[in-house]
Amino acid sequence: MRSARAIDGRRVLRFSCGLEIRVGNLAAAAALLTGAILLALVSLGSGITETGFREFLRFLAGEPASADQAYALWTVRLPRIVMGFMAGWAVALAGAMLQSITRNPLADPGLLGLSQGSMTTIMLLLVFVPAAPKVAVALAALAGGLAVALLLLWLVGGERASGLAILLMGIAVETVLSSVGSLLLLYTPPETSLALADWMAGSLFQANWNAIATFAPLFCASLLGLFLLGRATSAYDLGNEFAMALGEPVRRSRPLLLIFAVLLSASAVTAVGPLTFLGVLAPQLAGFLSPATGRARLFLAALTGGILVVAADTLARSVVRDLPLPIGLGLTLIGVPLFFFALRLQALRRLQLH
Length: 354
Fold this sequence. Notes:
- 74% of the residues lie in helices and 3% in strands.
- The chain has helices at residues 23-44, 53-60, 67-102, 114-128, 134-156, 163-187, 190-200, 209-236, 240-245, 250-272, 278-289, 294-319, 327-353; strands at residues 2-5, 11-14, 20-22.
- β2 (11-14) and β3 (20-22) form a beta hairpin.
């Protein structure tokens, strides 16, 4: 490993295997990881029961704790922190991949209809089979997302289709599926409609260690996918024609990226419901913190997504303790002001450069 400067003058670390990492990206990743740990500590102390990190350390040391404190820490707060981070990671990573494929910063699983496909199949299953097991719900979400992905690939016509064509076709499919979801909410029994509406708002109320154990293999697989597919996203950022000119096997890599994004999105939808706007928000905030490409961009975006979901859940438990706040609303309250702030600073920087 040696230190050098890239073509744009930024300092990088170059390894003998050919891997190159920008020092600024490493610093941003370290800052985000530190922020995630500090946020988790704050989240441990947020809630009605008076307990937190100090009691957590005492519990690990074997000191006795009250039943309420043990329940709050191990049954409620820790599962919500872990599940929230993993779900946010998955959605943000899927959004960053889709933005590279389409070359559009607004692309995310929701806009392309992937999340809506998963939600529609889950809603249909819960309407007709209310007592469906969780395995069936997860399979239904994956089937709905994959069906939309395959439909998009068929409609746009193969590897030479532009990213804009995929985006526009995805918006059309998402609109149709949203209409189907609205019909289901309107014409199902009131108790079913209320349950579906609560789930569609997104929540971590059902987070538990069994769900985390189910989600953990996918989280580990996302790390492997990030490393293996990150280089392809760098080529797609240059455009479809440039990617093929650089030797990127578009016929194979584009469907693989799309299917992997579906898997991440469908799993997150099954676990916590839809996380609206996170797939757009997290990559943009990560890019503002430290401009990056390829694997570094995907990793920073995923980290940012996990942090945003945990922050939204912490806000919900600390500000409005007696009123359940959907995670989607918490994300809006935290993420949108940050998004406006980042865009404003970027605009001011451009004015200063000119």
